[in-house]
């Protein structure tokens, strides 16, 4: 047999699958992972290019300045509305801090009890940072899943297959998450984003089905391990919901501050442009104007672009964490 016959063909990935995967990555980057400032700038560019293109094609556009007054007046009014939204967001965040000593004590006690349960299950003190705490939760959950898998051979083939399916699914998923958690410079959102793919309702239901369907055929060790695995998965979902609250408070505070920072220059540019149009109408025919007008509009809508870039991520996080155990949604696990 020749060397050419010994060479096996290298399997190729269909172009449709490659395109689908790239599309998914781009969608995830825009919705969650991408830098919000870059997305906001991209929105501004998509506004600047068409306006500049229209001027280039028409060569001497907008000789009638009346529509320009409407445009910049709308920008000024819209940005003032955004500032009002900022004030409303700050009031919302501030209202969450108005709690009585009894409410604060009750909340603190529930957090301490939850933390104690996690530490008792892991047999070690839990870190105070979200990254370390979540890493401990996943490590402990993986250990419980592996314990169930080690005892699978003691049962019949059907029982062992069901257990192996559950253990393999959880182990592969946790290994993938731990790779993300090991990355440096993880912030609150990065920690939260690793848990957005599922709330483990399906895995918990699978474990309960195994326990119920094979009742009397499972060893006591396996039954206890399944119960502990369910508890660990529920603890992860509790942590996810708590970290979501922390993230939303941080994100909304950042949005309100950035809108104020961007709103002042946007208002200033729009007002200056209106003053220039009013005082020197002839400026509309100059070369400088052909560049200044689209740039002024772009600067004017930057607060809206920033709001857009942050709100789509906030909305995506809320959507994917809407359901809590024991329920889940197909959209949440995309």
The first-to-last residue Cα distance is 48 Å
> What portion of residues is helical?
over 70%
Query: Strand count, sense and closure of the main sheet?
Result: none
What is the helix/strand order? HHHHHHHHHHH
Average pLDDT, rounded to a whole number, is 80
Strand elements, count: 0
The computed structural class is: mainly alpha
What fraction strand? under 5%
Shape: elongated
Low-pLDDT parts are 1-8
The Rg value, from CA coordinates, equals 28 Å
Number of helices: 11
Task: Provide structural commentary.
By secondary structure, this protein is an all-alpha fold. The chain contains 11 helices and no strands. The chain has a domain of 208 residues. Helix 3 runs antiparallel to helix 11, helix 6 packs antiparallel against helix 10 and helix 10 runs antiparallel to helix 11. The N terminus is likely disordered.
Task: Provide a brief overview of the structure.
The chain is mostly helical. It contains eleven helices and no strands.
Secondary structure topology:
Elements: H1 3-6, H2 15-33, H3 36-58, H4 66-96, H5 101-122, H6 130-150, H7 157-181, H8 188-193, H9 201-213, H10 220-279, H11 287-320
What labels would you give this structure?
334 residues, mainly alpha, 11 helices, 0% strand, elongated, disordered N terminus
């Amino acid at each position: 047999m020749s060397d050419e016959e010994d060479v096996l063909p290298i399997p190729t990935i269909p172009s449709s699958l490659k395109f689908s995967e790239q599309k998914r990555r781009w969608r995830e980057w825009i919705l969650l992972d991408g830098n919000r400032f870059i997305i906001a700038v991209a929105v501004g560019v998509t506004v600047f290019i068409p306006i500049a293109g229209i001027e280039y094609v028409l060569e001497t556009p907008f000789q009638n300045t009346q529509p320009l007054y409407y445009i910049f007046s709308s920008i000024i009014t819209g940005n003032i509305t955004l500032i009002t939204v900022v004030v409303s967001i700050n009031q919302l965040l501030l209202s969450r801090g108005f709690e009585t000593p009894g409410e604060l004590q009750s909340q603190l006690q529930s957090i301490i009890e939850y933390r104690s349960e996690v530490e008792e299950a892991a047999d070690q003190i839990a870190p105070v940072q979200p990254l370390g705490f979540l890493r401990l939760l996943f490590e402990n959950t993986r250990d419980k899943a592996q314990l169930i898998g080690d005892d699978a051979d003691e049962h019949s083939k059907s029982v062992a297959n069901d257990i192996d399916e559950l253990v393999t699914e959880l182990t592969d998923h946790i290994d993938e998450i731990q790779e993300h958690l090991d990355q440096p410079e993880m912030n609150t959102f990065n920690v939260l984003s690793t848990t957005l793919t599922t709330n483990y309702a399906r895995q918990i239901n699978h474990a309960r089905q195994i326990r119920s369907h094979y009742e009397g055929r499972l060893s006591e060790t396996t039954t206890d391990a399944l119960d502990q695995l369910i508890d660990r998965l529920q603890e992860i979902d509790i942590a996810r919901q708590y970290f979501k609250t922390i993230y939303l408070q941080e994100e909304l505070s950042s949005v309100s501050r950035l809108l104020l920072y961007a709103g002042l220059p946007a208002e200033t540019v729009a007002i200056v442009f209106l003053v220039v149009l009013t005082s020197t109408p002839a400026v509309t025919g100059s070369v400088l104007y052909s560049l200044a007008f689209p740039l002024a509009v772009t600067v004017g809508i930057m607060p809206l672009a920033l709001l857009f870039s942050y709100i789509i991520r906030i909305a995506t996080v809320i959507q994917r964490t809407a359901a809590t155990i024991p329920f889940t949604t197909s959209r949440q696990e995309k």
